[in-house]
Amino acid sequence: MKPEQTAVSLANEDQVREVLAESVLGLWDVVNNITRLKPSRRERFRVTVFGSARFKPGSFGYEETKRCAAELAKLGCDIITGGGPGLMKAANEGAASAPERSKSIGVRVDLPFEQEVNSFVSQTFEHRTFFTRLHQFVLQSDAFIVAPGGIGTVLETMMIWQLLQVRHLQNTPLILVGEMWPSLVEWAKKSMISIDSPMADAADLDIPQCVGSGDEAVTLIRKAHAQWVKNQDKTVSEPK
């Protein structure tokens, strides 16, 4: 039996804060337990595309992102983005070009200065915090493509990179597209392992796959998708 709990006066700010902190931690325990439940067979392969909200339709980055997302949609991949403008909209627009084969999904966060969900999203999820939003990206995605982006994109990239490093995510491609990313990875290699006391293993810094074009990213996703299909077929054929 749990020990009897005594009432806490709202006038006692220290104890009130302690009760709130314990309650929040308890809620996270519940969430963590629920997310341990994994489907034995995922019905669809889902690719999350991270990228800047500032690219305009007609720009090279926008049109390339849209084209590559359309290729993945033809393959039968669902496309997940942050649901906003820029490269998120481009990826959702590409997915929307093949609605019979792909879902175009937006995972939004409540921000006072950002636009509403873009018009090419067919399924929307709303979050109040970046933490729960990032958690949903992790739970739902089979691969990640990172297009050029700013601080938010870097945050998302580092989160996925770290989860792959500690094996909380496995067999999940993290593909960085464009000229801005190789220098980031090289900085990490130089700063974290080229010293007397390395702060990371060399293998950790090989996790992101840097490519120069969207076509290279699509090629890597095709390989990952083929392996996923193979694993799905194996799951179905295994005896219950």
From TrEMBL:
The keyword RNA-binding belongs to this UniProt entry's keyword annotation: no
SUPFAM superfamilies according to UniProt: MCP/YpsA-like
Any one GO molecular-function label of the UniProt entry: hydrolase activity, acting on glycosyl bonds
One Pfam family matching this protein: Lysine_decarbox
Signal peptide: none
Taxonomic superkingdom: Bacteria
Keyword Nucleotidyltransferase among UniProt keywords: no
Enzyme Commission number(s): 3.2.2.4
Keywords, comma-separated and alphabetical: Glycosidase, Hydrolase
Catalytic function, reaction form: AMP + H2O = D-ribose 5-phosphate + adenine
Annotated protein name in UniProt: AMP nucleosidase
